[in-house]
Design a protein that fits this description.
Strand content: over 45%
Strand order of the largest sheet: 1-2-3-4-5-7-8-9
CATH architecture: Beta Barrel
Radius of gyration: 20 Å
Distance between the termini: 27 Å
Number of domains: 1
Largest sheet: 8 strands, antiparallel, barrel
Shape: elongated
Number of helices: 1
Order of helices and strands: HEEEEEEEEE
Helix content: under 10%
Structural class: mainly beta
CATH topology: Porin
Length: 183
């Protein structure tokens, strides 16, 4: 009888690791330096320490380019825009069940190892280059996530929601859709 109870307890436990993959579109917002507006690929690993609390590590890659509608001229070059966005976020997530197959997750943490390439056209000699710009963790670099989860089966789900990642110089608002595999 005792072994049957333990078997039921093990079956009722939530999966502790989730692998999420999908994409979205980062919309650069802000007054001074709005940041790039590019499609993105997201890869996430979430480890749930308890039924309701977990830690998520997310990698965002925006391989495209966001060229300015009006290039910015300087004496020796023209700034065409930005591209090749990439960064990491580390967030604490809280999940709550809404109904049988629906759940809600909210996360807050930090972003780091950010980078974007500044695309420039030099005049002498004429050439187009992408100058990488990256840095580690800066003051005020935070990440907020809000996701709705729809469980398809015990080990499979889909998530949709938004992330807001804010480095000091620009803000990245991203609607995102993710496929989930649970272990």
């Amino acid at each position: 009888m005792c072994s049957l109870g333990l078997a039921d307890l093990g079956y009722a436990q939530q999966p502790v690791v989730e692998l999420e993959g999908g994409g979205g579109h980062v919309f650069g917002v802000g007054a001074g330096a709005p940041g790039p507006s590019v499609p993105t690929l997201d890869a996430v690993v979430v480890v749930w320490a308890t039924e309701h609390w977990g830690v998520a590590l997310r990698r965002v890659e925006g391989p495209g380019e966001d060229l300015y509608t009006t290039p910015k001229e300087s004496p020796d070059r023209t700034f065409l825009g930005v591209g090749n966005l990439h960064y990491w976020t580390l967030t604490a997530r809280r999940r709550q069940s809404i109904s049988g197959n629906l759940g809600f997750e909210i996360g807050f943490g930090m972003m780091f190892n950010k980078g974007v390439g500044f695309i420039e056209m030099f005049r002498d000699p004429p050439r187009r280059v992408s100058v990488p710009s990256g840095r580690g963790v800066g003051f005020g670099d935070y990440s907020v996530e809000a996701l709705v989860t729809h469980s398809l089966a015990r080990h499979f789900a889909v998530k949709a929601g938004v992330t807001f990642d804010a480095p000091l110089e620009a803000n990245h608002f991203q609607p995102v859709a993710l496929a989930v595999v649970r272990f």
